[in-house]
Write a structure and sequence with these properties.
Helix 1 crosses helix 9 and helix 5 crosses helix 6. With about 290 residues, the protein is an alpha/beta fold. Strand 3, helix 6 and strand 4 form a beta-alpha-beta unit. The protein has nine helices and six strands. The two termini are about 15 Å apart.
Length: about 290
């Protein structure tokens, strides 16, 4: 099994090989919990290999700077407009009057989401923490996605790394999380000779409008194509995962099966939460040995 990580996975102070090995070790017990949650704990997790590419995204998000409230300050007007388009998919109501989408309206939109999700009974501190988490998630997604898509040579390097990993290990299953689902989708298109029996996308941003328009290959008649070498495609999204919008990709991509789940109110986008979920366990179960 090859895993493809998403955002927030730069491993400082390690070589790429050490980072890949460490992330793979972390994933094994999470996958075991996923099989157990599906009632299939008797199945053994196969060899797990992490395709680690974060070190190639050299223009990824920087650490939060002093004086910044939530990191949204670092987004350009173009990026803020993309975030606004994204947040409308999450149900944020439109502005009361036509205006350029600037920082304040985006913060207000995130505040609306916090109130909608936390409810009126949530303590002020809890709402503030949720606001901070959502803001950091938005900034990381925008910046790491841009780091992947902005330079053609970098994009090719990331794809080639994943393609080499698949060629070397010949997995039956590729599990791709977050931005990793975009990497996997584009790689399997770019190298149609690569064959995997099962592609599982977790918390995928493939349907976010700005990213959807930048995919390679680009959408045809409003839909993305299925990679030629993929036997079956399962997409799983948490009901509260702000990155996985729309949560069901069937209207945009030829996905065979969708799963909606709840991996946690505070961290609905973590790879560990998705791997430990019973839906993921049930998806991979037919492809692991007992």
């Amino acid at each position: 099994m090859v895993l493809v990580h998403g955002i927030w996975n730069r491993q400082q102070g390690m070589t790429a090989q050490e980072a890949a090995a460490g992330l793979a070790r972390q994933a094994r017990p999470q996958l075991e919990r996923g099989l157990a949650a599906a009632g299939l704990g008797h199945l053994a997790v196969p060899e797990v290999v992490m395709a680690y590419y974060a070190h190639l995204l050299t223009d990824g998000p920087q650490e939060r700077q002093d004086g910044e409230e939530d990191g949204l300050d670092r987004l350009s007007e173009r990026e803020l407009a993309e975030v606004w388009e994204w947040l409308t998919l999450a149900g944020v109501p439109g502005p009361e009057e036509a205006q350029a989408v600037l920082l304040a309206p985006v913060r207000q939109a995130l505040g609306w989401l916090v109130r909608a999700r936390a409810g009126g009974g949530a303590a002020s501190r809890a709402r503030q923490e949720l606001m901070a988490r959502l803001s950091r998630l938005v900034v990381a997604t925008v910046r790491e996605t841009a780091a992947y898509t902005s330079l053609p040579e970098r994009r090719r390097a990331v794809r080639e790394l994943l393609a080499d990993t698949i060629r070397t290990h010949r997995p039956r299953v590729v599990v791709a999380h977050s931005l990793g689902s975009v990497v996997a989708y584009e790689t399997l298109h770019a190298f149609p000779e690569l064959e995997v029996e099962l592609l599982v996308t977790l918390g995928s941003p493939l349907g976010l409008p700005a990213l959807f328009r930048q995919l390679e290959p680009g959408p045809l008649d409003g839909r993305g194509a299925r990679p030629a070498g993929v036997g079956r495609w399962v997409n799983i999204a948490d009901a509260g995962d702000l990155v996985a919008l729309p949560p069901e990709l069937g209207g945009l991509f030829p996905v065979d099966s969708h799963g909606r789940t709840d991996i946690g109110f505070w961290d609905p986008h973590t790879l560990g939460g998705y791997l430990a979920n019973g839906l993921t366990g049930a998806a991979i179960a037919p492809y692991v040995t007992s």
